[in-house]
Amino acid sequence: MKDLLKILLGFLPWILFGIMAGPPLTRLEAALAVALAATLALGFNQLRKGFFLTWGSLLFFLVSFILVAFLKNLWVVEHMDLLVRATLAAIAWASIIAGRPFALQYARESVPEAYWRTPEFIHTGYFISMVWGIIFLIALGASLFRPYLDQLAGWLYQLLATGSMFLGIIFTQWYVHRVRKARQA
Q1: Domain that holds residue 107
Q2: Whole-angstrom distance, CA of residue 3 vs CA of residue 52
Q3: Which of 54, 60, 64, 116 could be disulfide-bonded to 43 (CB atoms 3.0-4.6 Å)?
């Protein structure tokens, strides 16, 4: 349960943004401000530790807030859904490429240091981060094809784009439980 809470807190700024964002422009501006504040408030320790997800969130919400609230950049406003999905995918894959998978960073918060260098722990962190990266790419694909998905079946877009984050949380919990159970056997 502790792992689930950490995952939810890591994504909470994105979840809040997703719930709040929408027309009119003032609502989008407010959603960006709330997400930025939540990133700073909830992620202060992770920012100090160099967490990829938290730093990526901070940069995204800060730049987006400036572009939307101050510069009134309509291109950013019109493509926000796509930018959100692309940013999350980029964060996941950049953390893997940099050798610091974001899931591994969160796992270290709740696993004794004695396990941090074990091949099983490292593999699990990479694997979970890759699954999240794939989930974010699927959501990005849904955003790219949103006009077509909305015409065919709006629920399909919602399932692929919005449901993907919850799928990732459920998968992470299941996989971590599976690994712990195998280790105890």
Answers
A1: 2-184
A2: 17
A3: 54
